Amino acid sequence: MKKNTLTLTLILLTAVFAAAQNDLKTVATVTLTKTEPITVKMLKEQVRQMETAVGQPINAAMRREVLDGMINERLALQAAERDRIVVSDAEVNQQINELRAQFSQMIGHPATETEFTAALRQQTGMELPAYRDQAKKMLTVQKYLLTKKQDVLRTVQEPTDAEITKEYELASADLIQPETLEFSAIVFPINSDAEKNKKRDEANKMAREIGNSPEKFDEKLQQGRAAGAGYNMAQRSILQKNTAGQQRAGQAFMDEAFALAQGRVSKVLEIPSGPARGYYIIKVTGKYPKKFLALDDVHLGYGETVRTILRSAVMQKHQQEIITRAQQELVNELRKGNPYKIFEENLDY
């Protein structure tokens, strides 16, 4: 028995060692200004992140596309370094703060550090430090592209009225705005089961202090802006009576919230799961019936007219077409002379 156990241990150790050795193999080198290897381990990590983002395994052909993207990125980074194009920490922080603001808007209150990092991990497969490094690389590549391809990027055309009208006609089935509730919220986020009872007690205490007074609610809402307030505040949140709203808030929250009259303050409500999990006290600031949106109607979810939203969507299409063209031109230029090498025998890991 001891001999068999020893043999099995040796086999397992050999397998682990072989896998580690394989991870160190080079799948490509980039040599525009210096020799930079891309190892099997680096490729595996990039593939893992992509699989996390798309929610499914990727095949061998897509793995090759991932490697091509890694080569292109390193070519651009080496070229940017050569041409002294840099991205500051302030620019990286701005990018991350914008992402945090978008997530906060989605969940209806300012995201805590725990909420934001958990969402980042779920969506990208990366922790915040790794995402910060990746964001800096991405911004550097973007800045290099903007610097080298200004002439191409300036050719973006403004959307025409005909394009906007056509986009409106195509999107008409999606332009039925469901019954919508607008509200302000005092939020006691639940970041773990261990703190649930504590947060509920804090929310109930706050509700007793506010009572039915809109004025007292507004006072407590503004106090939530202060650091160390012990709760979050959301000046303007939108909840729509549809499947997405139900999934975000839960049926019980939705029923209680939509039953409130304009200007009324709620009792303590709970969102039991998801990124917006927590206890809420809300005040209704707007109630809007279901309607079909005309071009110049305001879309409550965006706070802009449908025309403005569609103009931006068409403009983004135009920009993406030009960016794709500029990127391809830049890649062709950087790859001229083959300043890279792919080791095909190591790609099929």
Q: Give the second-level CATH assignment, the architecture of the largest domain.
A: Orthogonal Bundle
Order of helices and strands: HEEHHHHHHHEEHHEHHEEEEEHEH
Strand order of the largest sheet: 5-4-7-6
Give the biggest sheet: 4 strands, antiparallel
Name of the CATH first level of the largest domain: Mainly Alpha
Radius of gyration: 26 Å
Structural class: alpha+beta
User: Looking at this structure, what is the CATH superfamily of the largest domain?
Assistant: Porin chaperone SurA, peptide-binding domain
Which residue ranges are poorly predicted, with pLDDT under 50 across at least 5 consecutive positions? 10-19
Count all strands and give the number: 11
Residue fraction in strands: 15-25%
CATH topology of the largest domain: Triger factor/SurA peptide-binding fold
Based on Cα principal axes, name the global outline: globular
Span of the ends, CA to CA:
34 Å
Report the helical percentage.
55-70%
Mean of pLDDT? 90
Number of structural units classed as domains = 2
Helix tally?
14
Notes on the structure:
This protein folds into two domains: 22-152 and 325-347, Triger factor/SurA peptide-binding fold (Orthogonal Bundle); 176-292, Chitinase A, domain 3. It is α+β, with helices and mostly antiparallel strands. β6 and β7 form a beta hairpin. Residues 10-19 have low confidence and may be disordered. α3 (60-82) crosses α6 (128-148), α4 crosses α6 (128-148) and α11 packs across α12 (251-259). The strands form four sheets. Strands 5-4-7-6 form a four-stranded antiparallel sheet, with helices on both faces. It has helices at residues 2-23, 40-54, 60-82, 89-107, 113-124, 128-148, 150-153, 161-171, 196-210, 214-223, 243-249, 251-259, 306-335, 344-347, and strands at 26-30, 36-39, 176-177, 180-189, 232-240, 269-271, 278-288, 291-292, 298-299, 304-305, 340-342. The two termini are 34 Å apart.
